[in-house]
Every structure is written in structure tokens, then in C-alpha cells.
């Protein structure tokens, strides 16, 4: 078959010449595309400048040691340390034998020259000539090393950029103009990762579109690098000020495989300070801001780490001087409350760190009803004063309600009354509500009135959150998803983009966290607290937290009896059979193990007794300074207290008899009687030392008592005052009451010191005082 080639038609001679269309030039490659920028970058020409700087620094160091007459032996020792440090740093930084050798050799040459300057003089012709010759000889070598390190950096950056391009993200470039505030030419480092500043071109997807491609980016990055890329570990964050820019965060360390323990944080804080609760996969700390995200929901299977994560929140709210902590535990209440309330029930902590606890549905209903009444009280005040939101102070605290294991409570269909029926209206219909309906009402109203709710659930689905589950979730912006079965659970928990979020692969204690402003959930590891750490925290934080103020508590129906109700007292006896007190303000009492006897002295009388003793001591210091309390002074105090008060004689005498009975129950102790108040079954050294500690001001220290501060007490007791012998005897005496030195030794005033926890000493004194 013959193929006929098409012929170009000829134009008549009279026809005008054809008009040639302009050819559109090819579109140039963007100046800052990933490939172009990173594959054609060159090292900055700073070789000679840096060599000159090193020459000047060495000359200045030689002149300094010579004029200051530093001993050359010391300069030589410092030089040896500099050589070792330079070699170690270069090896860790670059892992290149040539660069390590150059760094160590340069440090050795400089140290040798400075040592010679200290031994002889830096101003001789030989010294100057050797310095100049070394600079010219080592300068080219430094240029080669710098070229190699820059190439290594460029190669690493190019690989990172090309992986993003290969993952199907065209027209995305690294914003190399991003400098300052931690950024260096479009990159900044985190404790366990790095971030790249990205520019999205016209063909590039937006931040939401790029977030959908994260699983593909993670797959390529995990196969091409040694980075521990877990599903969901690469993050995309939008630039809040520029719509065409974003931030790509990549982890370089497997944070989820680490056990991150919550560190002790001494001292008071405010509820408005950021509450640090987790560490992101890039190593940055994640904190909860209760004003930005007033309510929270944590969902996941059993034994996934939800309760441990909740304890990290409790540790900070109980340290806040402007917050009252309430807690509901639907399942496993003994396990949930024991470490937090145990120290108070045993007499070790002065106050309970949890102001109100609920171990059953009835008490939980009472708590929510009073919380709603508190919100309504503050709303009425805001309407009068014109304030937009409640501002907490130590005198007017906020309230954080934590609900552990809430599914049984939320799914309960039992309805409770919201108010009492008026006595004069038998036909009044009392409104009722389920626990889920109460909780929904509280989270809707409480965000601006200083009442926060954080609840736990096994799943985030509506069926697991009660009849109001959908509306309840819509009010919660702080969410955490722990290990669960699959994508359905992830979509049920979070409100943002969940592409690549795989909750089924999470280890224990790991979670995805979503807060206001997040484009997608952030993978993180929660801070962990052991039961022993919780008990120590409950003792330390007892001095910071407290109950509601009188104004806020006035309209509450159930709050006043939250500790004295029969059901609460029975639960506390189960929680701690050997409790020495079960009501805040109640005096410690001795009790046989297993006894369930109710308190013999009401809390109101115990509080009155404390106030009267304080007033009596103040009156003694004014009226009888330096005198010891006696029967005569007590009678004189009573006469002073009730003089000209308008009471009749019989009423006055009855109150005096009652007050005398209160004082007789625990006489005002004289310093010489302190030893007799310590448990006589203890060894003599332990009794004497605890009495001396109780009479001193050591228990007023913030966190530690240094062992040397106890030596004056040892000397007063007739013991050796030397740090060795006296310290050993003090340690042996405290060991009998389970008080041991802090290990490892803490750093106090810049030095490591042998010390004891103040909380341990205070607990030993209170527990063994009769």
C-alpha cells in the first residue's frame, strides 16, 4: 500500500502573505521550586572570613592568658578538654572521619599555640609566624570541610523536598525567605523533628488537600529514610496569616516508644496557665488552655491510657490556687480515688486535693445539679456587673469537673429532679433530667462561667454518649482519641481531617489530640504518673487547693454535705478502712484497723476549735507575752471573749462550758510537752527528732529540707553535730518512720545536696502525733 504524503497547499501569488502567530515561550521553572532550589544550591563563600575570625580569636586568647599570667599548665589542661570536646562534637554532628580529624587537629593546634603564649610570649616573631602559617595551611582544608558539610545538608534537604514532590504535590516550594523566630531558610528544628515552610503555587492543593495526601507522603518518607514515621506522625499546619503557606512537620525520634514521666512541678500556679499534658511526636509539649477549649472528651478502649492521661490534668488543677477540682468516677471508683484521697484520709495530707468526689450515680447527679446552680449564680452576677466571662481568683475559683469511665452514667435512663417541690403547691410538676441531659446543659452554659467538664468514654459514637451524645460532642473542642478498633472510632471522636489517622495502631499511652485551631489531630504521648507519684502530689498540693468561696456555695443545695452524707462516709470507709479523718477540718483521731465508727466530733466543732485556739494564742501573745498557757489564762480568755456581749448569764455559762470541753479535748501544747505527744511505741531517737522537727520551722520549707539544716536539732538533742555522725543518726531515726533521703540528690542553690522531702517529714510528724 502506497502512502501518499499530504501536500502543503500553495497560495496564489495575489494572496497576502500568511500571518505568523507568536510562539508562547515555555513556562520557566519556578525560581523557588523544590528541585531547582535544593539541587542547584551552592555553599556560601565564607571560607576566608571564618578562617580570619579563628585567627583573631586565637591571637586574642594568647594575649589574654599572657597578660593575665595564667599558669601554662592550666591552659594546657583546658586545651586538652577543648580538643576532646571538638572531636566529639564533630563526630556526633557529621559522622565523618575527615571532619572529625580536622576539628580535633585545629583545636589541638590552637590550644598548643595559646599554651606557648602562656608559657613564653605571643609577641615574638616565631609565635606570630607560626600563627600566620597555620592559618594559611588550615584555611583550604576548612574550605573543603565546609563544602562537604554544605553538600550533605543540601542532599538531605533535596531528598526531603523530592519526597514531597514524588508524593503527588506539584507546584509546592520551600519558602526559603522564612527566617527568624526559629526559622533558618525555611527550616526549623524541634526536639524530636524538623519543620519545612511551604509555599503553595497555583496548581498546588490547599492545606486541607495536602493533609489528605499525608498517608502517601508518610509511606514514601518511611521507605526512603530511617526516620520513625508512624501513621499520622507527619503533620500539616496552616499559616494563620497567609493562605498560600503551610508548615510540614516530620519526626526524627520515636517519641511514642518512650515513657514520659510527669516531672514534679513545685509551687502554686493559676488555672489560666497552660496545663502541659502530653508530648507531640516532634518533641514539643502540648498543653490544655481551658479558656480556649473549656471542655474535653477522651475516648478509647480499656487499658489504653485514658485514666493516666486524666491524672496529668488533675495534677495541675490541684496545684492551681484559683481552681476547685471535682471528680466523678462511674466505674472502679476505689482505684480512681484511692491515690488522690488516701493521703488525706490517712492524716498525711492536711487537706483533700479533690474538693468533691462522686462514686455513684446519685452523688454525680447532686454534683451536676449544684454545678448548674453555680453557673446560674454567676450568670446573674455577670448580668449585673456587665462582665463577659468569669475571671477566677483564689477567692473566687473556677471549677474543673473530671468524669472517669462515664458510659454507664451517660447511658443511664434514670431521671432525677432538678429542683424541690414547693411546700404550698401539691400540683407542681418537678422537672427531671437524665445524667446525659444534665451534662449537656452544664457544658452549654459553663464555658463562660468558669466551669469546665472533661469526661472519658470508651467510644466517641453517639450510642456510647447517651441520649444527648451528638449535641454533647458538638460542645467539646478538646478531644483525645486513644487505641480503638478502626476508622469509625476515629471519625466519631474528631471533628477535623482524619485521613491517615489510625487509632488502631496506637500503643498504650499514645493518642491523637485535637484542639481549637488544629487542621487535623496531632499524634502525641501522654505524660505518665505512678500511684506513688499521685500520692506525693496529693500531699504537696494540699496547701494550694481548697473549697468554693462562700458566695458561690450559697445557692448550692448539696455542696455543704458533700463529705458528711451517709453514702459518702460509707464509701470513704471502704476506700480507707484505717482512716483517721473523713471530713475536711476534722481533727486526727486514733482508730483501730477495720473500725467503721463514725467521727465522734462533728466537723463544725473541730473547725470552731481550731479558730478558738488560734484566737487564744493571739490573745496570749498580747495579754501575757512569754507566759505559758494555764487554767487561769484560759478562764481569763473566756471572760474576755464574752464580756459585754448582751447574753444572759445562763447562755454565757453554757457556751463557756462547751468551749472548755473543746479545749480540754486537746490542750494547748507547751514546747516541753512535744515529746509526750509523739507515739511512745517509736524508738527514742525517732520520738525526740520528730518532736524537734515539729517545734522547728523546717516544715515551712517549700519542697526539701537539707540534711545539714537538721544538725542544729541533733546538737540540741545531745547528738553529734558533725555532718557524718550526726547525719547518720538522723537518717537512722527517720528510717524508722519510712522517711528516706531523696535519690538522686536534688540540686539546691546550684549544688547537689543531701535532702529530705518536706511532705514526707510533715506526714511522719502528723501520722505519729497522739
Describe this structure in words.
- It contains 25 helices and 21 strands.
- By secondary structure, the protein is α+β, with helices and mostly antiparallel strands.
- It has a ten-stranded mixed beta sheet with strand order 7-6-17-16-15-8-14-11-9-10, sandwiched between helices. Strands 1, 2, 3, 4 and 5 form a five-stranded antiparallel beta sheet that branches. It has a two-stranded antiparallel ribbon with strand order 12-13.
Uncertain runs with pLDDT below 50, 5 residues or more? 1-49, 591-610, 665-676
Report mean pLDDT, rounded to a whole number.
76
What is the radius of gyration computed over CA atoms, rounded to a whole number of angstroms?
36 Å
Count of individual beta strands: 21
Amino acid at each position: 500500500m502506497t502512502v501518499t504524503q499530504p501536500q502543503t497547499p500553495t497560495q496564489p501569488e495575489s494572496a497576502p502573505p500568511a500571518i505568523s502567530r507568536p510562539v508562547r515561550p515555555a513556562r520557566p521553572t519556578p525560581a523557588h521550586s523544590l528541585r531547582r532550589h535544593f539541587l542547584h544550591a551552592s555553599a556560601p563563600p565564607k571560607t576566608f572570613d571564618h578562617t580570619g575570625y579563628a585567627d583573631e580569636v586565637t591571637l586574642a586568647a594568647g594575649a589574654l592568658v599572657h597578660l593575665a599570667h595564667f599558669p601554662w599548665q592550666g591552659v594546657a589542661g583546658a586545651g586538652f578538654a577543648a580538643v576532646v570536646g571538638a572531636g566529639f562534637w564533630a563526630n556526633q554532628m557529621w559522622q565523618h572521619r575527615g571532619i572529625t580529624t580536622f576539628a580535633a587537629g585545629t583545636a589541638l593546634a590552637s590550644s598548643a599555640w595559646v599554651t606557648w603564649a602562656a608559657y613564653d610570649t605571643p609577641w615574638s616573631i616565631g609565635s606570630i609566624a607560626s600563627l600566620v602559617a597555620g592559618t594559611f595551611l588550615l584555611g583550604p582544608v576548612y574550605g573543603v570541610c565546609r563544602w562537604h558539610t554544605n553538600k550533605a545538608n543540601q542532599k538531605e534537604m533535596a531528598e526531603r523536598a523530592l519526597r514531597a514532590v514524588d508524593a503527588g504535590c506539584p507546584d509546592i516550594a520551600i519558602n526559603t525567605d522564612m527566617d527568624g523566630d526559629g526559622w533558618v531558610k525555611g527550616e526549623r528544628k524541634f526536639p524530636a523533628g524538623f519543620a519545612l515552610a511551604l509555599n503553595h503555587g497555583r496548581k498546588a492543593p490547599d492545606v486541607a488537600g495536602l493533609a489528605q495526601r499525608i498517608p502517601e507522603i508518610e509511606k514514601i518518607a518511611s521507605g526512603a529514610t530511617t526516620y520513625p514515621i508512624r501513621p499520622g506522625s507527619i503533620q500539616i499546619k496552616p499559616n494563620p496569616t497567609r493562605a498560600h503557606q503551610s508548615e510540614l512537620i516530620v519526626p526524627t525520634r520515636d517519641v511514642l516508644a518512650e515513657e514520659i514521666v510527669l516531672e514534679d512541678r513545685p509551687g502554686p500556679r493559676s488555672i489560666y496557665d497552660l496545663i502541659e499534658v502530653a508530648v507531640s511526636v516532634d518533641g514539643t509539649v502540648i498543653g490544655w488552655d481551658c479558656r480556649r477549649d473549656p471542655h474535653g472528651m477522651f475516648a478509647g478502649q480499656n487499658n489504653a491510657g485514658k485514666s493516666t492521661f486524666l491524672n496529668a490534668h488533675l495534677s495541675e488543677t490541684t496545684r492551681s490556687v484559683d481552681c476547685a477540682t471535682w471528680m466523678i468516677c462511674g466505674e472502679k471508683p476505689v482505684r480512681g480515688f484511692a491515690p488522690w484521697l488516701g493521703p488525706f484520709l490517712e492524716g498525711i495530707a492536711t487537706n483533700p486535693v479533690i474538693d468533691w468526689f462522686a462514686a455513684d450515680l446519685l452523688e454525680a447527679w447532686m454534683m451536676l445539679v449544684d454545678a448548674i446552680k453555680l453557673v446560674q449564680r454567676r450568670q446573674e452576677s455577670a448580668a449585673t456587673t456587665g462582665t463577659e466571662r468569669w475571671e477566677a481568683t483564689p477567692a473566687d475559683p473556677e471549677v474543673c469537673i473530671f468524669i472517669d469511665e462515664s458510659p454507664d452514667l451517660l447511658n443511664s435512663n434514670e431521671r432525677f429532679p432538678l429542683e424541690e417541690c414547693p411546700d404550698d403547691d401539691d400540683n407542681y410538676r418537678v422537672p427531671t433530667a437524665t445524667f446525659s441531659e444534665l451534662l449537656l446543659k452544664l457544658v452549654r452554659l459553663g464555658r463562660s462561667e468558669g466551669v469546665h467538664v472533661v469526661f472519658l468514654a470508651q467510644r466517641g459514637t453517639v450510642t456510647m454518649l447517651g441520649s444527648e451524645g451528638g449535641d454533647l460532642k458538638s460542645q467539646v473542642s478538646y478531644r483525645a482519641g486513644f487505641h480503638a478498633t478502626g476508622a469509625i472510632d476515629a471519625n466519631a471522636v474528631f471533628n477535623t481531617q482524619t485521613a491517615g489517622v489510625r487509632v488502631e495502631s496506637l500503643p498504650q499511652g499514645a493518642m491523637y489530640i485535637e484542639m481549637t485551631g488544629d487542621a487535623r489531630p496531632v499524634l502525641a504521648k501522654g505524660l505518665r504518673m505512678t500511684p506513688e507519684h499521685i500520692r506525693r502530689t496529693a500531699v504537696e498540693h494540699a496547701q494550694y487547693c481548697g473549697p468554693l468561696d462562700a458566695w458561690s456555695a450559697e445557692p448550692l443545695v448539696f455542696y455543704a454535705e458533700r463529705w458528711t452524707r451517709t453514702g459518702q462516709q460509707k464509701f470513704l470507709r471502704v476506700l480507707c478502712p484505717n482512716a483517721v479523718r473523713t471530713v475536711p477540718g476534722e481533727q486526727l483521731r486514733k482508730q483501730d484497723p477495720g473500725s467503721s465508727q463514725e467521727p465522734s466530733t462533728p466537723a463544725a466543732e473541730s473547725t470552731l476549735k481550731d479558730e478558738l485556739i488560734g484566737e487564744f494564742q493571739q490573745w496570749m501573745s498580747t495579754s501575757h507575752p512569754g507566759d505559758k498557757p494555764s487554767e487561769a489564762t484560759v478562764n481569763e480568755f473566756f471572760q474576755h471573749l464574752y464580756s459585754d456581749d448582751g447574753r444572759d448569764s445562763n447562755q454565757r455559762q453554757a457556751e463557756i462550758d462547751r468551749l472548755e470541753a473543746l479545749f480540754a479535748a486537746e490542750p494547748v501544747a507547751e514546747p516541753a510537752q512535744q515529746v509526750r505527744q509523739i507515739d511512745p511505741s517509736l524508738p527514742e531517737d525517732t520520738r525526740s527528732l520528730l518532736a524537734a522537727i515539729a517545734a522547728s520551722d523546717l516544715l515551712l520549707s517549700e519542697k526539701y529540707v537539707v540534711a545539714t539544716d537538721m544538725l542544729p536539732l541533733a546538737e540540741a538533742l545531745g547528738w553529734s553535730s558533725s555532718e557524718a555522725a550526726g547525719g547518720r543518726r538522723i537518717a537512722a531515726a527517720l528510717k524508722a518512720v519510712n522517711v528516706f533521703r531523696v535519690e538522686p540528690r536534688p540540686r539546691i542553690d546550684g549544688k547537689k545536696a543531701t535532702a529530705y522531702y518536706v511532705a514526707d517529714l510533715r506526714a511522719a510528724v502528723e501520722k505519729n502525733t497522739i
